[in-house]
Amino acid sequence: MAIQIYILGKLMQDNNYPYKLKKELSEPIPFDQLGGVTESKLYYHFESLVKQGLIEPVEIIKEEHRPDKQVFAITDKGREALPQKIYQLFGNADTISGMVIALANIEYVDREKVIELLYQKLARIKEHWAHIKDLEIKVQLSEEKEHLVKYLGEYFSSKKEHTTYWLEELIKRIERNEI
């Protein structure tokens, strides 16, 4: 999904071809390696987007002693689908790092709707944590399990605080149009 959003977002700016996008992903920071994006994955997603009718080939660039380059453009259907894919990524991502591609393409969606999705996610995290804290009070533990449960409780509490802080910070920055 994120790779398709990346491709559609790039094609919203200008027609492009897979090899060029792969190269852009790798320079100057190797985002392709960090995200595990191989050339074959990129080509696979281009083909998938063509099959969905979201992009279409518009030109073939022929260069001497080089492979032909098939240039693609986003379709009207692709322009309509991009915001939905972005909202879906915001809704499904478990971490902020999972939202990076959606954040990089936030210009193609309604910011208020993104903020609403993030507030819903924040509420679910807090609700889930309250449920876990409730269970902790109700469970009777043997002495040997107390230390493990205490350790795990501290770990998950710290993780929840970290996630909550950065999600709240993200919401604030989107509200202030900093992102």
Strand neighbour order, sheet with most strands: 1-2
Major sheet: size, sense and barrel closure?
2 strands, antiparallel
Structural class: mainly alpha
Distance between the termini: 21 Å
CATH fold description of the largest domain? Arc Repressor Mutant, subunit A
Domain module count? 2
Structure annotation, total helices: 8
DSSP strand count: 2
Helix amount: 55-70%
What fraction of residues sit in β-strands?
A: 5-15%
Radius of gyration: 21 Å
Q: For the record, what is the CATH homologous superfamily label of the largest domain?
A: Winged helix-like DNA-binding domain superfamily/Winged helix DNA-binding domain
Order of H and E elements: HHHHEEHHHH
Protein name: Helix-turn-helix transcriptional regulator
Domain Transcription regulator PadR N-terminal: 7-82
Pfam families: PadR (PF03551)
